[in-house]
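pinned: reference chain
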Amino acid sequence: MSKQLSRRAFLGASLAVAGSAALPRFALAQQPTARTLVAERRVIDVLGKPADVFGIRNELGRQGLFLPAGERFLVDLENQIGTETIIHWHGQVPDPAQDGVSDTGYVPPLAAGETRSFDFPARSGTHWMHSHHGLQEQSLLAAPLVVYTAEDEAADLQDETVLLHDFSFRSPEEILAELTGGDIGGHGMHGSDNTAMGGGMMMGGMDHGMMSMDLNDVAYDAFLANDRTLDDPQVIRTEPNGSVRLRLINGATSSAFWINLGDAQATVLAVDGNDVEPITGSRFPMASAQRLDLLIDMSGKSVVPVLAQVEGLADRTGVIIAVNGAEIPKISSVAEQAEGPVDLSLEERLISRHPLASRAADRTIRTMIMGAMAPYAWNLDNAPWPNRRPLAVTEGERVTLDIMNHSMMAHPMHLHGHHFKVTSLNGRPINGAVRDTVLVPPMATVGISFDADNPGRWLFHCHNLYHMAAGMMTEVIYG
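pinned: its structure tokens
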């Protein structure tokens, strides 16, 4: 038996301990019928207490969807949470009616008990799915969405996925009301019903040059990696001298992390599901909604903690990679010192392995991020949703979007229906990565370019859920 097959046999034996985002079942490739996803209510343990949260369960009983190479996104989504919802397929590029949003008017939310079918070509890479209805995403209505390539399936690697999240026992509605002083304004909440999560307001800042940078609107009770804290972390067992492809997804509602491997090194393989030229390091910034694929070589190592520490705080979560039989160390959920703000130090080094075709921009659009923590009001171009100022494009154009942040808080900006190339940082051209979510730091400008090749109306918004709820959203429209 080949080394690759013997490794997969080993991994199959360890599947039970791998957690909700376990290895792909490559043998299930090319199912002729639709897969089923169920949006559900569930109970998890957080800090020794039961927590009522949401989830998205696949037909194997795990959270998330893991598609083999070449399979279409052929899915029946069942809404079993008892109230209306809609799920956005973050990183996929379907037609507008299948994007999983109701704000643009193509489709209504799914009613309680409704099943809706989706059928479109799947885009490979590490992606995720989450509610785009009210504040349900905060209550863990989110899960991995990974589409493997033939190269992934042939690789002699252990493949693992980790979804990061922020958690509190208070309701999201209470959080938003506290942030806004009771005046939600901006983006309507669609009458959503949430029974889990939230947190207290955190108006902390950090000196950033000569100005004070705002960080972490919300004080959370815990931070999770695949639903677990460092009090009881997921342990990913591997064979000695093996290699692990770790697919990290920052599904946190409003938290950015520094990924830290301590003395170990990892190689960045992809961001937001798009391959990049390899970069090696031990510490990487990761904004909300971004994904980071790391290759971790366990040669000569027995245990590698992969820790995600919140910017501006000492709080952290993570998973532990350990060879079979290795003793697992106890790791505190509080680091010895606070982390600094997440920045563009990785962004400026990334180079796409499959960039957009070289072409001059046909249209340049400038959009301004505006707002402040007090009063808690956020918008684009002084036009909070739904009174937005649409960004108009024409099919076939290469569009450059210059995003200027005129606020003292960083914002992870996400464009639906497209992937874009990062082309400039503060006016300096770069040959950057292809992404769907990019961080724009305070008083900075980030340029992105995309091809207008998917006609429709597409949301463009901050992926901090509370910023979006306060109005920081517009749409790209094809004229």
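why pinned: DSSP finds four helices and 35 strands in the chain. Residues 1-29, 185-210 have pLDDT under 50 and may be disordered.
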